[in-house]
From TrEMBL:
Protein name: Enoyl-CoA hydratase/isomerase family protein
UniProt cross-references to InterPro entries, sorted A to Z: ClpP/crotonase-like_dom_sf (IPR029045), Enoyl-CoA_hydra/iso (IPR001753), Enoyl-CoA_Hydratase/Isomerase (IPR051683)
Entry similarity comment: Belongs to the enoyl-CoA hydratase/isomerase family.
Gene3D superfamilies xrefs: 2-enoyl-CoA Hydratase, Chain A, domain 1 (3.90.226.10)
UniProt xrefs under CDD domains: crotonase-like
A Pfam family it matches: ECH_1
PANTHER family, sorted: ENOYL-COA HYDRATASE, POLYKETIDE BIOSYNTHESIS ENOYL-COA HYDRATASE PKSH-RELATED
Length: 259
């Protein structure tokens, strides 16, 4: 029996939908999923006829970030290399989304935790349902932040809010995501698809060159390489932290396993 693809790319005219497809694990990020996302984005990057990319996920969660069980089940002497594959792969996906010539619309229907924040931050427009929320979990599990929590989030919400949200591991509900500028609109679940479709139709009705230029000019930090440098700094710190006893015990406690 053929396994379901971890990332699904569907084309409907000028609209492409990219779906995280690991619902049984809440679309938690592992190397194979990140590789599949990167291959799909490479396909989209090379197709000039694509006008909008919709980023979405199967199941109840958008993504719960790096798979903690994946880290814990990796032998301790190989965790640094595994962290480099996961965080490095996530960084490449985030940068590929930012570099797309077309707008990216996020369809967020559930939790966004850990490094999956970076996928949301790479979107131009984001619709969230009341079931969506944002939470870091790093200080709870014993990890170092990745996925743009330090490289991208402070520029969006301010340094004080970024510190408070992460250090206290505070959950940010959907309505606050909109207020902080992390999402564009809060909609009911039955209006989610209509909202996304309305945005894609509106974007496709605009002049594509002007849309592309506007998108580029709105991301000067990405253009200058500061986001890439910040993501690399996060990766290096993560690889150091993952080897600590604190991280080992934190993962065991989070998973309900013996350290």
């Amino acid at each position: 029996m053929t396994a379901a693809p971890l990332a699904v790319l569907e084309r409907d005219g000028p609209v492409v939908r990219l779906r995280l497809n690991r619902p049984e694990r809440h679309n938690s990020l592992v190397p194979d999923l990140l590789d599949a996302l990167l291959r799909a984005l490479d396909t989209a990057m090379r197709d000039p006829a694509i006008g909008v990319l919709v980023l979405e996920a199967a199941g109840r969660s958008f993504s719960t970030g790096g798979d903690v069980a994946g880290f814990f089940d990796t032998p301790r002497d190989r965790r640094r290399a595994y962290a480099e594959a996961v965080v490095g792969g996530l960084n490449r996906v985030i940068l590929a989304l930012l570099d797309l010539p077309c707008p990216v619309v996020g369809r967020i229907h559930g939790p966004v935790t850990g490094g999956s924040l970076g996928l949301l931050l790479a979107c131009d427009l984001v619709a969230v349902t009341p079931q969506a929320f944002l939470q870091s979990y790093y200080t709870e599990v014993g990890f170092s932040p990745d996925g743009g929590w330090t490289a991208m989030l402070p520029a969006r919400v301010g340094e004080a809010a970024a510190r408070e949200i992460q250090l206290l591991n505070r959950r940010v509900p959907a309505e606050e995501m909109v207020r902080l500028g992390l999402a564009t609109a809060l909609v009911t679940e039955d209006m989610l698809d209509a909202t996304v479709a309305g945005w894609t139709d509106a974007l496709l009705a605009k002049q594509p060159g002007a849309v592309a230029a506007t998108r580029l000019l709105l991301r000067p930090v990405a253009q200058s390489g500061r986001i890439a440098a910040g993501l690399e700094t996060e990766k290096q710190a993560f690889m150091v932290q993952i080897e600590t006893e604190e991280a080992h015990r934190g993962m065991a406690r989070f998973l309900g396993r013996a350290p």
